[in-house]
Amino acid sequence: MAAVRDLKAAEMAAHGGDDAIELGKRHLIQPWPYAGSVGAEARALIGEGDGIYITDSTGKRLIDGPAGMWCVNVGHRREELARVMYDQAMALSYNTPWYTMNAPSAELAMRIAGHAPGDLSHVFYTTGGSSAVETALRFMQFYNNVRGRPEKKLILSRGGAYHGSTYLSASLNGRPRDRDWMDGADELVIKLSSPDPFRRPHGMSLAAFTDFLVDQFRDTIARVGADKIGAFVGEPVQASGGVVVPPDGYLKRIRQICRDNDILYVSDEVVTGFGRLGHVFASGDVFGIDPDMITFAKGVTSGYFPLGGVIISERLLEELRRSNHPDALFGHGLTYTSHPVGCAVALKNLDLLEQGVLAHTQAVAPYFQAQLKTLEELPLVGEVRGVGLMGCVECVADRESKDPLQLDKDVGKRIDAHCHELGLLVRPLINMCVMSPPLIISREQIDDMVAILREGISRTMDDLRKEGVWRG
């Protein structure tokens, strides 16, 4: 059997991408598939990456517009990270976290705590963003059980939110289509309005919209009862919801209401953490808030190794230690919690961020935002928005009604297809194109990226006109 496997592997290598695509169709279940093609589809095959670029199976070189999935922050093919993985695996490839620990995880926790706002001082490691949010919610439940408040378990989330794919984390999601066919813990979750200024009611000022969001938050707590609500979970910037940047002051006001009502504020920085906005964490440095917990993943290793985590307030841990239930067990853990290879990679990745990547991000981010903003000249584009090295181009059929192309919900895929042909990978989200390139991108490369995106949108406009879908 081993000889047969070796022969098949050799044949696949000889035939290159074609065999991989065929094997994918036969054996691979892609994430987020439709029932009509589940287990029978192949997606664009990527062969290698270098810096801000990736190369597909045809040899076409593409700018990696989404940086993988918001995560390849220091770029592809960083020898420093690859070498650390090798060295750590040769020293210690794994240890059980149930009754042993490793040095890289302890050092990384110390360094992460040093960047976190307020009194967030302790880290629980997970394998990614979904499990990080799941851990934060389970910790909230444990915390309230130990403190004698078993009814204080409801979770506040928002429309447009994305927090993961595990059961509890996915229950918080508020994007269109995410939950149409999927179950969730709906009895535990209360959804609030998205803080999306672009979609605020017609004629409402930004200040009035902010007041509306805050009043809705406060009124919901009064209606449901603060004694029933355990946590609010919110992204500083709603990433997969379309790079929704909240109005100024909104997050600070929500944080204060949570504090006044003893509701834990969980800041989901799975996307915004580790450099995306020019800082290790955006909660304090960009938005001026000090949450009770911060979840992170993605950029912590720049996507080179699966790792995530939750940073928890010292105050919460101290309250548990002082409780009347010292034997209460937080029955939660993962086989790969505190993985030594992942933590070693994260340490080196943090070195790279601190030694220049964060400063570079802060320097080029205004240029990135300004260049993307020029795409609003195109009649198909309703708004370009973003912060740091996160941007979204939202397409609409009509700028007055802000109709998101009801007749063609896949306009983002159309743009992505044209951009792929032109040398750019885009993250299409229904009628939106999301851009979050590696943080090492230069001004010249930003120019290239925006020029391709402009041409991709222009070609899409031509297609829509020819098909009679859109008049423009």
From TrEMBL:
One of its GO terms (molecular function) is transaminase activity. InterPro entries: Aminotrans_3, Aminotrans_3_PPA_site, PyrdxlP-dep_Trfase, PyrdxlP-dep_Trfase_major, PyrdxlP-dep_Trfase_small. Keywords: Aminotransferase, Pyridoxal phosphate, Transferase. The keyword Transferase applies. The keyword Transferase applies. Its cofactor is pyridoxal 5'-phosphate. Belongs to the class-III pyridoxal-phosphate-dependent aminotransferase family. This is Aminotransferase.
